[in-house]
Amino acid sequence: MSNNQHWIQRDLAVVWHPCTQMKDHEWLPLIPLIRGEGPWLFDADGNRYLDAISSWWVNLFGHCHPRIIQALGDQLGLLEHTLLAGATHRPAIELAERLLARAPPGLTRCFYVDNGSAAVEAALKMSFHYWKNQGYPRKDHFVSLQNSYHGETLGALSVGGVGLYRDVYKPLFHPGFSVPVADLYERRDDEPIEHYTDRRFAVLEHLLVEKADQIAAVLVEPLVQCAGGMRMYPPHYLSRLRESCDRHGVHLIADECAVGMGRTGTFFACEQAGITPDILILAKGLTGGYLPLSALLVREFLYQAFYDDYRSHKAFLHSHSYTGNPLACRAALATLDLFDQEPVLENNRQLHKRLTQGLAPLRGHPHVADVRITGTIAAVELAQDGPRKLSYPAEERRGLEVFRYGLQHEAWLRPLGNVVYLMPPYVINAQETDTLCATVCAGIDFATRSG
Ligand code: PMP
Known about the structure:
By secondary structure, this protein is α/β, with parallel strands linked by helices. The radius of gyration is 22 Å and the shape is globular. Helices cover about 35% and strands about 15% of the residues. It folds into 2 domains: about 30-65 and about 345-445, Aspartate Aminotransferase, domain 1; about 70-340, Aspartate Aminotransferase, domain 2 (3-Layer(aba) Sandwich). Strands 4-12-11-10-7-5-6 form a 7-stranded mixed β-sheet, with helices on both faces. It has a 4-stranded mixed β-sheet with strand order 1-2-3-15. The chain has a 3-stranded antiparallel β-sheet with strand order 13-14-16. The protein binds 4'-deoxy-4'-aminopyridoxal-5'-phosphate (PMP). The site of 4'-deoxy-4'-aminopyridoxal-5'-phosphate has 14 residues, from helix 5.
């Protein structure tokens, strides 16, 4: 029995994996990983895989980065964890200072949580609770965008729009509103982008005109709807949204869990629209992908609405045991150091160009309906008939074929249905990028060879 087989056998006897139909593992190999180095992951039999999806979009500067390890080691010798209620510590303070210093103007407070979904829950609660504290308890609905994804807990799922994850739990949700986004994939070539964006936005504007008195906040993933298939929309939609939320007295929550930390070409995706949301959520890459941590960057007026005498019962009591964990904050500080000390955004512009070139051969492929790229997120939409955007039935699992092809060619891809995407760690080099793109092109040829 190989080392891999040994671990697979033990795993399948006891572990229930996330986002997985476990029966698939009767024929689909599970990969027992032993170690990581830069953008590479190594399994127990010594095979290596390029981590093309940054381990679910969290890893920014590669695995086992010496400076992040050093920072964690230093912190481990000082203080591993303590509660953040009634106590504080240097990593939490410094991280809040540095995130707010980088954030769009007007964000002045940092509220820590410990993962993306929980941060979304906290943001929804904070927005609703703000309006209640201000004397508007009827503002208890949220607006989200079709095809959006904000996490897997009940509140986060209820504002999500991807049926695959949410439909079964629908009876458990608080009702809300869902409106179309200006998804560029759905735009007809003959309609100018701005016109299309305004037309799509009009539905949201109309909803706010009619129902703002029942709406606490609009929640969006700025620029890229990641779990919804890396669908992209223009910054103009966000500028319209900011203006409209202001006019109608509704909060704007930007969920930058996946798109923040330099992913879309700017440090925060919102910067591209020149807007400041009322709450900006960070998670995933916040710690460089080393430990779970999330943060809500919040405008001062929200904070002030909770600031009162104890007897007023206005405080925001949301809490998790690992809120602001010192190790996680220290990993995040080391990650920010890398942004400060290296030309990360400039390097990412080169990576963007390289990905664009590397995937260019797929433009015009008979089974590719779209190749799109924002920052260092590149996606390829597979289709039975590319030019007509006629998708493959989900049951054919074409993306899974690309995944399997990738594994045999040193690439760890994890397509989202018919969407094959790359979101690599920023430290991937030019030659690795070219090889990865070539593997994606060949994998797509392989997966679409019949029909
Ligand atoms: N929001 C967005 C935009 C996400 O992409 C995700 C995770 N894919 C989440 C929230 C949830 O984050 P977590 O997995 O840390 O709960």
